[in-house]
Automatic annotation (TrEMBL):
Organism expressing this protein natively: Nannocystis exedens
Biased composition (Low complexity): 25-80
Classification of source organism: Bacteria, Pseudomonadati, Myxococcota, Polyangia, Nannocystales
UniProt region (Disordered), positions on chain: 20-80
Protein name, entry field: Uncharacterized protein
Length: 244
């Protein structure tokens, strides 16, 4: 696998081949994180409505006001990061990380690097992609040259959570939960040729693997028996520190 530094020196792109922005299909879990992945919910309140009904009786006509109230509904978007970042903040993060790359590699022009970052990093026009791309830039922008060299899509690398979150929210990734029995299930998030993180629960313990080694574990919260894919992915996100 190529190094992150090698990709970013050219285009700030972690992917071996950057997705086509126009033909890209949204897949995988659409969102969780700024910095360390977080999960938010979007609340869509529906106002109460008042209607009038007219009743005619032998004694006359009576108009009654009936109020029907619909409770606010919660649309949970798994992994959707809630952040205050706008395009100006994202562009500033591009300049920040490119200053670091420019100081570490003589052949990197920070200005050209920043322009490439601004135009090629956001493969998806979503809040999740904007937030996670900004967090990814900010994390790398705070590293020294040795840290930049070590950045990668494995848990032992600097900015692993931010790197994974960026890929999951901005690239074409797939999340595939599977249930094998009441006490065994798992889910995997895959970004082709770049990232593959799995979460497997069995014998009372759940383990996270970054494609090379196990890097985190937690007690089985009992999600296998319920065969609820959303609950399984939520448990994986909490245990593994990246959005499923």
């Amino acid at each position: 696998m190529r190094t992150i530094r090698g990709f970013c020196a050219v285009s700030i792109c972690l992917l071996p081949a950057c997705p086509d922005k126009e033909s890209e299909s949204a897949s995988g879990s659409e969102a969780t994180t700024t910095g360390t992945p977080t999960t938010g919910e979007t609340m869509t309140p529906t106002e109460g409505t008042t209607t009038e009904t007219t009743t005619t009786t032998s004694e006359g006509t009576t108009t009654e006001a009936l109020t029907t109230t619909t409770e606010p509904t919660t649309g949970a978007t798994t992994g959707e990061p809630l952040c205050d970042v706008d395009m100006a903040g994202f562009e500033a993060s591009c300049e920040q990380v490119c200053e670091v790359y420019g100081s570490c590699e003589a052949d990197v022009d920070p200005v050209a690097c920043a322009e490439t970052c601004k135009t090629e990093t956001l493969f998806k026009d979503t809040p999740a992609c904007l937030c996670s791309a900004t967090a990814w830039n900010a994390c790398r922008g705070a590293l020294d040259c040795a840290g930049i060299d070590a950045v990668g899509p494995v848990a032992s690398s600097p900015c692993f959570a931010e790197t994974a979150s960026y890929l999951i929210h901005c690239a074409d990734c797939q999340v595939e939960p599977e249930f094998f029995g009441a006490d065994m299930c798992g889910t995997i998030v895959e970004c082709p040729d770049v990232l593959g993180v799995s979460f497997l629960c069995q014998n009372g313990t759940c383990v996270c693997n970054d494609g090379e080694a196990d890097y985190a574990s937690c007690p089985d919260p009992g999600v296998c028996a319920g065969m609820d894919a959303e609950a399984l992915n939520a448990a994986a996100s909490e245990c593994c520190g990246i959005p499923f």
